[in-house]
Design goal:
The chain is mostly helical. It has one domain (2-153). Helices cover 81% and strands 0% of the residues. It is built from 5 helices and no strands. The chain has helices spanning 2-29, 34-59, 66-83, 90-116, 128-153. It is elongated, with a radius of gyration of 16 Å.
């Protein structure tokens, strides 16, 4: 189980890295706007979630995968080309959609780890319900902004 669990955690750590880079980019592009403030706040929450995930990876003896995290970093830098905002904000719209999908995946991660914790003491000791709830709140908040921007971006 350790190998598959380590792979699963590393994949989600890489996704968190990509999300953090995306949020930093949104925050920089919208620094003097409410969206920039939202991106900064969400960055802090996702960074905290990533730290929980890193702790789990270390607890199971897998640490973090620098290769996967570096790959996610490079991927985010490349996606900036595609996600560059046009006048209608389409790039930001797609970036928010990516973030929402990632947060949904994170919510599913917390759900399954909570279930697996019943049979794996290395996964015990976390409040998975609270982590799921935080992911649900993040998802709703991102969706609200995605829909706002989508009204203009998809014209």
């Amino acid at each position: 189980m350790t190998d598959t669990l380590a792979t699963y955690l590393h994949d989600h750590l890489a996704g968190a890295e990509h999300a953090l880079e995306t949020l930093q980019n949104i925050g920089e592009r919208h620094a003097n706007e409410p969206l920039g403030q939202f991106a900064a706040e969400l960055h802090g929450e996702i960074d905290a979630d990533r730290n929980v995930l890193r702790g789990l990876a270390e607890r199971i003896g897998a640490g973090s995968s620098k290769v996967k995290e570096m790959g996610a970093w490079v991927s985010e830098k490349m996606s900036r080309i595609k996600l560059n905002d046009s006048a209608n904000g389409f790039g930001t719209f797609e970036a928010l959609e990516f973030l929402e999908l990632g947060i949904r995946g994170k919510r599913l991660l917390w759900v399954v780890l909570g279930e697996a914790a019943a049979n794996d003491e290395r996964l015990q000791g976390l409040d998975y319900g609270k982590l799921v709830e935080r992911a649900e709140t993040q998802e709703v908040q991102v969706e609200k902004r995605r829909l706002q921007i989508g009204r203009t971006a998809l014209r």
